[in-house]
User: Fold these one by one.
Assistant:
Number 1:
Amino acid sequence: MIYVENKKRKIEKIKEQYPNADILDITSSSELRYAQILSPFYPHGNIPIPFTDGLRATCVEAVWQGLKVFDSCDIDLNTFKNDTMKGLKRTVRMFGKPLGHRKGVYGKELLNYFDARMQIYIPTYKWVLDNVPEVHNVIMRIKERSKDHDIVFLDYNTNTEFRDTSSPLSHAGLVKLYIEGNYPKKNVSYTPLSDAEIKQRKNEIKENKKVSKRRNKSKVEQLNIFKNE
């Protein structure tokens, strides 16, 4: 099984909850490069910008942030060129009320949060998983490992339900869906979870955590899928 936990949690607590599991930090601050390249902040380069023929961006996060439109600011072409993994966030504090995401650099339509997630973020991240050879190779190795080992991904966001718009989506959750063959399909019309469904989901997560905490404690080693090379 593959699980997603908050990177800010104490590693000892995670080990207690998931005995004998491999733990892999796949954020941009990961100490392991092969894990770091799974971050949406990693500058692979040459990533297509949705609904925009001919223009590319450095990373998934650059696409997501660059197409944001605010009260005081439209899209930012310079964000598409940012390859530093820093300074990518374009926030309410800086630019005021968010109006949506522009549907392409030259588009007139603004997408709401859910539609932008489904039409911009999710397909752009999938493009990286499908088309960047180094990334795809790592994914396949993790998939093979997960057949007989529990794996815990560490991410700053832990929302693994792409239909839940109450919190930011976890890219680790998307990796989990991709490996398990459950990645959102392009030709399916999805709808966001209702408030009642979100509340029910959060209650279920709490109950599942209570069950997990009753597992036996066990130490684990940091996952290294290249340890024999």
Number 2:
Amino acid sequence: MTPIAPLEIAGKSYNSRLLVGTGKYKDLNETREAIVTSGAEIVTVAIRRVNIGQNPGEPSLLDVVPPEEFTILPNTAFCYTAEEAVRTLKLARELLDGHKLVKLEVLGDEKTLFPNIVETLKAAETLIADDFDVMVYTSDDPILAKRFEEMGCVAVMPLAGPIGSGLGICNPYNIRMILENAEVPILVDAGVGTASDASLAMELGCAGVLMNTAIAGAKDPILMASAMKKAVEAGREAFLAGRIPRKLYASASSPIDGIIS
């Protein structure tokens, strides 16, 4: 069997193609157990909601998800302007000793949590000029995805569905078009609800999947983390193996030449 190449982002290799968030767990112990079970090596952290040192004297997420063990991916969740997002990630860089890899998301409103593309473009331009390695959350528009790549984003992360919705990949055809033209990793972000959604993303050819609610919001987050790990691995293997073409009618599994009559 051909060895599966690792995921490469901003010059670093990762064996796991599953990226996970840290919100919505009942406590820090469950957070760690789920992340370890998932096999994820990149862990995203909402700087505006989670303490990673900006609140001295309070429990820190880094106590259970240490940077020596995981790649911390600061994100700008709950930012609604480019200015907020840039300020948040500059704070994260200070707290994490010059850490450059970040996830940019600038939201349009509190109801849909869809990206505000105008503000996201502004923030991405500023951050890239300031030497950040930007992984960007965006809509599933192929033109926009290519624009972010051309700007210098190290990965583009189109939504599968609305954040936290569990709807799965609402428009797989747009994801396929994004993948056809991409020269940077494309990772599905937001909307995954269960293992089959993650597997489908990988079968389409995505480089990875980022999720939080699908694991943290499950009845058994630890078991779901295990399921998602396997789904991402299986989907990647299926993509590399190459599925058989879809046919309208049956095709015999056994050859009919030489059959005894």
Number 3:
Amino acid sequence: MNTQELIIIEVFCKECQIEPHLIDDLEDFGLIQTVVYENNKYLHREELVYIEKVIRLHNELHINKEGIEVVLDLLQKMDQLSAEVKHLKTRLGLYE
């Protein structure tokens, strides 16, 4: 396994000034995923932006885990609808 793509959870938590149990709670609820390698828990580097968004929703806006799940689902649907509108505008432009 290429550990260059992974960040150990303790280091991430220290940098973000959060408790490691928050990561465990978010993982148990299914909002984030971790990787266990050689008895250490890691986060994927490519998912850091998403994980930081989840943590911001929890810490700064005081949204509970259920609410975070709803917010993330709505954001995903907004992105899908935005992409669909862009696609339809492009198709419509072909007929003008």
